Amino acid sequence: KVEEDLVPSTQCSVIRKFVRVFDISDAIEWIHMNCPIAKIYFPEESCEQVEKLFKFCLQ
């Protein structure tokens, strides 16, 4: 599960690539609208956890 203090850099690189591939301008809004799609790529995380991950990695 996501531990905000201990997000692996590999996970952030996956998130940055995800944002680039899907051409997402507002990642947090995108997660709100498309959580089921995000869950395909992050099946272990809740929508809220995915949002926190994205915020952490894209800050």
Please count the beta strands (DSSP E, at least 2 residues each): 0
Q: Report the span from N to C terminus.
A: 20 Å
Overall pLDDT confidence: 85
Give me the strand/helix succession: HHH
| Gyration radius, in Å | 10 Å
Dominant shape: globular
Strand-residue proportion: under 5%
What kind of sheet is the major sheet?
Answer: none
Tally the helices: what do you get? 3
Can you tell me the number of structural domains? 1
Structural class: mainly alpha
Contiguous uncertain segments of 5+ residues:
none
Fraction in helix: 55-70%
Domain aECM cysteine-cradle: 10-58
InterPro entries: CCD_aECM
Protein name: aECM cysteine-cradle domain-containing protein
Question: What does the secondary structure layout of this molecule look like, with pairings?
Answer:
Elements: H1 9-21, H2 27-41, H3 47-58
Helix pairs in contact: 1-3, 2-3
Describe what this molecule looks like in 3D:
This protein has 59 residues and is mainly alpha-helical. The chain has three helices and no strands. The chain has helices spanning 9-21, 27-41, 47-58. Helix 1 crosses helix 3 and helix 2 packs across helix 3. It starts with 8 loop residues before the first helix and ends with a helix. The model has no long low-confidence stretch (mean pLDDT 85).
